[in-house]
Design a protein that fits this description.
By secondary structure, this protein is of the alpha/beta class. It is built from eleven helices and eight strands. Strands 1-2-3-4-5-6-7-8 form an eight-stranded parallel barrel, surrounded by six helices. It binds 3-methyl-2-oxobutanoic acid. 3-methyl-2-oxobutanoic acid (KIV) binds next to strand 6.
Length: about 280
């Protein structure tokens, strides 16, 4: 459990044991995940939705992603840290995409970047890998370009669309990605892709046959209630716990129970006497 996770060890986990991955956006969350032995920590651009309250992941900036990536990297000792390339990061040209990917590695201390599929993805990914940066691919439902996919729907549901996804996975493998996220695809399509390629697949809403699984942490912790997809299993109900704690705190303050002696600082009796005499 203490051994550091590397790109190589992730690749070797295929056909050996399942890979665990979760998203984190700040220091305490990443520290808990690292302690829990999660293999890969992703600074997902889902940060836009679950932390910043934005409607679309397209709206998050490179600077915002970098700020959170730095906080995550400060906490992690064992896990592999992957940063999501935001939409903005590859809008200008391929050279700018490489420059932004390098910022995640050199300024934040991430080990790799993730790049969602879009029409120029294979070219951009090739350039980033040629610059020496490990890349995780992402196909199926790709939220940054969801408008081109008829919205947030399961992808690859007919044989033709499923074949297209298989082609994308094969191409990404050829480009040299070290793993591929499969988002919102039928479980049997994910199984076919997982068997076809040599790099690990990490599923989210892609069934049990992938080499690993990822969830958005705020969804699985019940810490975000806006829209929870069918594939999310809730492992906690943090919003409820927090609301209850905030209500108890407010009641204690209003009714004079907090702060009590236990949570206050005392003073030497003689010093207090002197002070009182002077006032
Ligand atoms: O941004 C994100 O959280 C992601 C996961 C859904 C894989 O890309």
């Amino acid at each position: 459990m203490d051994e550091k996770i590397t790109i190589e060890s992730i690749k070797q986990l295929k056909n050996s044991r399942k890979i665990t991955m979760l998203t984190a956006y700040d220091y305490p969350m990443a520290q808990a995940m690292d302690k829990a032995g999660i293999d890969i920590i992703l600074i997902g651009d889902s940060l836009a939705n679950v932390v910043l309250g934005l409607e679309s992941t397209k709206d998050i900036t490179m600077e915002e992603m970098l700020y959170h990536a730095k906080a995550v990297c400060r906490a992690v000792k064992r896990s592999l840290v992957v940063a999501d390339m935001p939409f903005e990061a590859y809008q200008k040209d391929d050279a700018d995409a490489v420059k932004n990917a390098l910022r995640f590695i050199n300024e934040a201390g991430c080990h790799a970047v993730k790049i969602e599929w879009f029409d120029r993805a294979p070219d951009v990914i090739k350039r980033v890998i040629d610059a020496g940066i490990p890349v995780m691919g992402h196909i199926g439902l790709t939220p940054q370009t969801a408008d081109k996919l008829n919205g947030f729907k399961v992808q690859g549901k007919d044989a033709c669309a499923a074949k297209e996804l298989t082609k994308e996975a094969t191409l990404l493998e050829l480009m040299g990605v070290f793993s591929i996220v499969l988002e919102c695809v039928p479980d049997r399509v994910a199984e076919i892709i997982t068997k076809k390629i040599r790099v690990p697949t990490i599923g989210i809403g892609a069934g049990p046959f992938c080499d690993g699984q990822v969830l958005v942490t705020h969804d699985m912790l019940g810490f975000f209630d806006r829209h929870i997809p069918k594939f999310v299993k809730k492992y906690a109900h943090l919003t409820d716990v927090m609301v209850q704690a905030f209500q108890e705190y407010a009641k204690d303050v209003l009714e004079g129970r907090f702060p009590d002696k236990e949570h206050s600082y005392g003073m030497n009796a003689d010093e207090l006497k002197k002070l009182q005499e002077e006032n």
